[in-house]
Amino acid sequence: MALIDEIMAFTPLCEQEEHDRAQMLRFMSEHHDYLLRSNLVAHVTTSIWTVNHERTKTLMVYHKLYDSWSWVGGHADGSDDLRQVALRELEEETGITSGRLVCPDILSLETLTADGHIKRGVYVPSHLHLNVTFLAEADETEPLTVNERENKAVRWFGFKEALLSSTEPWMVEHVYKKLVERSRIPTRAD
Questions:
Q1: Cα angle: 188, vertex 177, 184; to 5 degrees
Q2: Fewer CB atoms < 10 Å away: N or C end of the chain?
Q3: What is the tens place of the pLDDT at every residue in 128-168?
């Protein structure tokens, strides 16, 4: 199924997702380059909310750009296989190779702001990330590695501790809290 069709079929579970889903679909129907970061207004990204097998902890990275503990994710960079992109980002940012998607379905949708910043010596203007999130499980005993280009640290947090550790209030309130709740709910694949 094409990404735009998957997003169309996604059932929003909160007001934030209703509005963001509509915004994503409108933008994607009007811009053929929505998968490329060369679109400086908005482009597709993917995140992977990774939990341990008991679903009591989540894996987070200390992101240099956001100066906060955050989930794992990255840019689509032309690929509409966001599941593969999310799993690749999980391995690249944390060293985790045991990660597997709990379910092929989209876990959540978010339109996120990315402030202007310098990336590899080049200024990137403020823009939107049309973000698609998936749920993964991984072995919390697997050794972790830090991708030093993007992150300062990687570690597992209990859910409450994860919410308290992020210094991004909007992300905690509107994204991470809903992901904690959804990761506790049995999925289609369980």
A1: 30
A2: C
A3: 999 999 999 999 999 999 999 889 999 999 999 999 999 99
What does the DSSP assignment read for 16-56? HHHHHHHHHHHHHHH-TTTTSTT-SSEEEEEEEEEE-TTSS
Q: Which amino acid is at 170?
A: W
Do 49 and 58 meet the contact criterion of CB atoms below 8 Å apart? yes
Sequence-ordered alpha helix ranges (H) in 64-111: 82-94
Q: What are phi and psi of 99, to 5 degrees?
A: -65, 135
Tokens of 190: 């369980």
| Structure tokens, 139 | 């072995």
176 DSSP assignment: I
Burial 5-29 (b: 16+ CB within 10 A, else e): eebeebeeeeebbeebbeebbebbe
